[in-house]
Amino acid sequence: MSNVNLNETAPTQFQDIGGVSLAYRHFGKEGAPPVVCFQHFTGTMNNFDPNHTNRLAQDRPVILVDYRGVGRSGGEMPDSIPATAADIIAFVRALGLKEIDLFGFSIGGMVAQQVVLDAPQLVRRVLLAGTGPSGGEGMQEFTREVMEIVNRPNSTEQERTLDLFFSKSPTSYAAGKAWLKRIAARKLDREPEAKPQVGEAQLVALAKWGAIPATDRYGDLKKIKQRTLVVNGKNDIMVPTINSYILQQHLPDARLILCPDSGHGSHFQFSEEFAEEAARFFAAP
Amino acid sequence: MPQDTHETAPTRFVEVGGIRFAYRRFGRRGGTSLLLLNYFAANLDKWDPKVTNGFATDRDVILFDYPGIGGSSGETPSTVTALTNPCVGFCRALGLTRVDVLGFSLGGMIAQQLAADHPDVVRRIILSGTGPRGGEGMVFEDLSADELDDEADLIMNVFFTQSEPSKAAGRPFIERTKLRAENRDAPVSKQAALAEAAAIREWGVIPQTDRFAMLSKIHHPTLIVHGSKDVVIIPINAFLLAQHLPSAQLIMYPDASHAAYSQYAENFLENARLFLSG
User: Fold this and answer.
1) Per-residue pLDDT at B2
2) How does residue A2 score in pLDDT terms, banded at 50, 70 and 90?
3) I want to staple A66 with a disulfide (CB 3.0 to 4.6 A). Which of A70, A124, A141, A235 is the partner?
4) What are the chain B neighbours of A242 within 8 Å (beta carbons)?
5) Per residue in A136-161, pLDDT tens?
6) How far apart (Å, rounded) are the C-alpha atoms in residues B135 and A223?
7) Nearest chain A residue to B245, by CA
8) Is A177 in CB contact (< 8 Å) with chain B?
């Protein structure tokens, strides 16, 4: 069987982490550290771009996982990033993995940073997309522009996602529609959409993460020695783009890529280019 | 016949507008030529051969000296605008109607001015270690022609960081620039260097109004590469370029200073090729 569309065919599995089970999918070529992938605000495993996951799976195992309370993962979504990261660390250990790479998008990028901070010995490399540091610029709450889109009446989730993740240019919007089409390709085991509790808890978690500490604002970033790639669009309205720059400047070993005419979902817009860059990043000696 | 390289390409001359330009041209002909715009007080020999030869494997690479620099005749202009106009004449003299440009530092300033004033001459732009007109902290108080007295020291201090990996990239860079043994370019005079220093300082002055308005006029696809610890052009300027240019991609490299594109030459060349062929 061809292994080029594993994202579409890998079954959803479940791993107990002590009283609750997390839904995950595991596919790709064995023999390299797996890349564990974390999803955005209210997103489920359904939303991973097959262009990314299938490309990465050519070289290494890919593990997609839904947070506690998301999709078919049991329990309730935690209302803090550290509690979410603790679940992930327990999950990785329960799978018996000793060394992993991380790929986190948006809130998933925050979870990824926290996993590295709390279990540095587990993590080899970190890929962060559309995210920011704890206590970053304008991260305590979403802007009015974002909340208007989130709460817009008479709109579909797809329409809202397009407005949140892509720029207003026809090119960007068209790329967004292509991404929506790609993530709809999987018919097997689709996860149920996140229940309302997930969004509520994640907003609380985001507010805590975004709170600016009284001292040593970006002190935690210096502790993340792992090689990191930071990617974002030129105008991210969900996590302002300056935060990607701040990540790069404060992380000891991070490369930054900012893409033109794009927003939060730049890695979906430049999907194939991003997949190649990510594959090179994880494969580099 | 083997193709010319950075090390073997003869220095040629072309006269236009009263200036006799020194230039070298090598690499694979056919597509859009890549014109390299040089940094402060630098002649043809100062380019990194790893970068120039890297580009030459699949495109036509052209290095040239600004007026009064190295082997080019004339007086070196002391503003970026005045440095830019002769570049257009140089392109026309070679019969080039449209070029890709790679501008490093001062060369990146000239690349921006060229694209803004002569948009039809430029197809795509690569900006390395540069900043917008009136960028942040672009006062260049330390810039001095005396720095030319110990170039190796200057390169190790400002092109690379003080970390061991960066220094380890800097030493071979210096050795590479010596590999061209014969027909080296004439040195840059202190007078010419002073004129370029004046141009760079004038570029750094913050406009009274509409600080980054010039950038909104540059619609060309642009690739910006910068070192995260650039001590010459502080890195926020690369971010400002990416934010204000209508169509720019930014790559910022860790633990790198002014010559990030040399320190990460393999990755830079890979991304630059994708960018230029896209």
Assistant:
1) 67
2) very low
3) A70
4) 239
5) 999 998 999 999 998 999 999 899 99
6) 31
7) A260
8) no
Cβ-based contacts of A280 with chain B (< 8 Å): 270
Element (H, E) at B21: strand B19-27
Q: How far apart are CA A20 and CA A77, in angstroms?
A: 11
Contacts of A255 in chain B (CB under 8 A): 251-254
From CA A91, how far away is CA A80, in angstroms rounded?
A: 17
Test B249 with A258 for CB contact under 8 angstroms: yes
The radius of gyration of chain B from alpha carbons, rounded to an integer in Å, stands at: 17
Q: What is the arithmetic mean of pLDDT over A44-60?
A: 97
Per CB-CB distance under 8 Å, the chain A contacts of B255 are 253
pLDDT in tens, A225-237: 999 999 999 999 9
For residue B256, which residues of chain A lie inside 8 Å, CB to CB?
A: none
- Average model confidence (pLDDT) across chain B: 96
Mean pLDDT of A81-92: 98
Name the residue in chain B with its Cα closest to that of A244. Answer: B239
B40 in Cβ contact with B147 (< 8 Å)? no
Q: pLDDT tens, A188-211? A: 999 999 999 999 999 999 999 999
Q: Which residue of A has its CA nearest to B235?
A: A249
Distance CA A1, CA B245 (A): 46
Nearest one of B207, B201, B79, B198 to B140, comparing CA atoms: B201
Biggest CA–CA distance in chain B, Å, is: 56
Instruction: Convert B34-70 to b/e letters by CB count within 10 Å (16 or more is b).
Output: bbbbbbbbbbbbbbbbbbbbbbbebbbbbbbbbbbbb
- Which SS3 state, helix, strand or coil, does residue A13 take? strand
Determine the 3-state secondary structure of B63 from DSSP: strand
A226 touches chain B (CB under 8 A): no
Nearest to A4 by CA among A24, A27, A31, A25: A27
| Per-residue pLDDT tens digits for B222-245 | 999 999 999 999 999 999 999 999
Q: Do A257 and B251 touch (CB under 8 A)?
A: yes
Stretch B80-85: mean pLDDT:
98
Q: Which residues make Cβ contacts (< 8 Å) with residue A2, sequence separation at least 6?
A: none
Mean local confidence (pLDDT), A100-127: 98
Nearest CA in chain B to A263: B243
Q: What are phi and psi of B221, to 5 degrees?
A: -55, 130
Choose among B222, B246, B252: nearest Cβ to A248: B252
Q: Residue A123 is inside which H or E element, if any?
A: strand A123-129
